[in-house]
Design goal:
By secondary structure, the protein is mostly beta strands. Helix content is about 0%, strand content about 30%. It contains no helices and 22 strands. An 8-stranded mixed beta sheet has the order 3-6-9-12-15-17-19-20, with no helix packed on it. Strands 2-5-8-11-14 form a 5-stranded parallel beta sheet, with no helix packed on it. The chain has a 4-stranded parallel beta sheet with strand order 1-4-7-10, with no helix packed on it. The protein is globular, with a radius of gyration of 17 Å.
């Protein structure tokens, strides 16, 4: 970083953008008007955010990611390099569809792997993990481990990002989880 307030001199930040303290915006990134970025975030190289996108505190957005209008990241979200968010379901170059952008909420602590694609209009549950290269075409439950094309749930992960075994106990922290429905996991003791 070579400029004040954590914004690299090659990055461009439009008027009307809010950036929280401790956030770093790296080379060649562009933050568009109306966007809000929380505190202590890392915005990698060649990232485009906005317009009107909300990014929570402590998010890490790796290189070559674009967050379009409709995408909302809660706190602690990790976006791997070159992951993709779409904004309409059936784009055509000759058809204007800006009024069809769909909301894509990404809940607290979610992780999206490198080169994954998130099709707009789907919610990613808290602390879920999307495997590298996966394509999300439906809502993702909290704590779900999703892999493949299209992405399917292959297991569960803890808040610490550890794959849970049959006992549903995090091997890193000892936190215990319980199935509370056919596709629903909840933290029961920290």
């Amino acid at each position: 970083m070579t400029t004040k307030q954590g914004v690299h001199e090659s990055a461009y930040v439009d008027d009307g953008v809010e950036i929280g303290p401790g956030t770093k915006v790296w080379h060649f990134s562009h933050i568009l008007k109306g966007s809000r970025i929380g505190a202590n975030c890392s915005i990698g190289q060649n990232v485009v955010i906005g317009p009107d996108v909300s990014v929570g505190d402590n998010c890490k957005i790796q290189n070559n990611v674009s967050l379009y209008k409709g995408v909302e990241l809660e706190q602690g979200v990790f976006c791997g390099p070159s992951c993709v968010f779409t904004n309409v379901l059936n784009p055509r170059a000759q058809v204007e569809r800006k009024d069809e952008f769909r909301a894509t909420p990404v809940r607290r602590g979610a992780t999206i792997g490198a080169n994954a694609t998130i099709v707009c209009g789907h919610e990613l549950g808290e602390y879920c993990m999307i495997g590298a290269g996966s394509v999300v075409t439906r809502d993702v439950p909290a704590y779900a481990l999703m892999v493949g094309v299209p992405a399917r749930r292959r297991g569960w992960v803890s808040r610490a990002g550890e794959i849970l075994g049959d006992d549903l106990v995090c091997p890193r922290t000892g936190e215990r989880y319980a199935l509370t429905g056919p596709d629903r996991l909840e933290l029961v003791s920290a």
